Amino acid sequence: MTSAIGRASFALVDAKTRILEAAVDLLSRSADPEISTREVCEVAGITAPALYHHFGDKERLLSAVVDRGWARFLESKRAQPRSTTAESSLSLSPKWW
Which residues of 13-27 are buried (b: 16+ CB within 10 A; e: fewer)? Predict the structure, then answer.
């Protein structure tokens, strides 16, 4: 049984965020690249109409997951210190020769 505090903190996270986090979690744990919207709804603790309200369909949900991953990747790249020399730049690149 969930405590009142647990329910309150769960409610503070908006449904769209919970849906995205549930989809990311299911995709990261699954060997099968296909996830069902029913599974996403169960993990997110929302109803199917809420998922479709926020994303329209499964394809747009998956597109939002990719967009979120790309945004996080770019944030992490921007957070890395920039090199000041060409040589140090090259040392971070894969060696193709």
Answer: eebbebbbbbbbebb
The CB-side HSE value for 23 (13 A sphere, CA atoms) comes to 24
Task: Please name the residue that has the structure tokens 């994303």.
Answer: 55
Instruction: Tell me the C-alpha distance between 33 and 31, whole Å.
Output: 6
Q: What are the structural domains, with CATH classification, of the chain?
A: 14-67 (1.10.10.60)
**Main-chain dihedrals φ then ψ at residue 17, nearest 5 degrees:** -65, -45
Structure token digits, residue 18: 């919970």
Q: Tell me: pLDDT of 10 over 60.
A: no
Indicate the helix (H) or strand (E) that contains 77: helix 58-79
pTM above 0.70, yes or no: no
If we measure between CA atoms, which residue out of 23, 47, 21 comes closest to residue 35? 23
> Is the CB of residue 22 less than 8 Å from the CB of residue 43?
yes
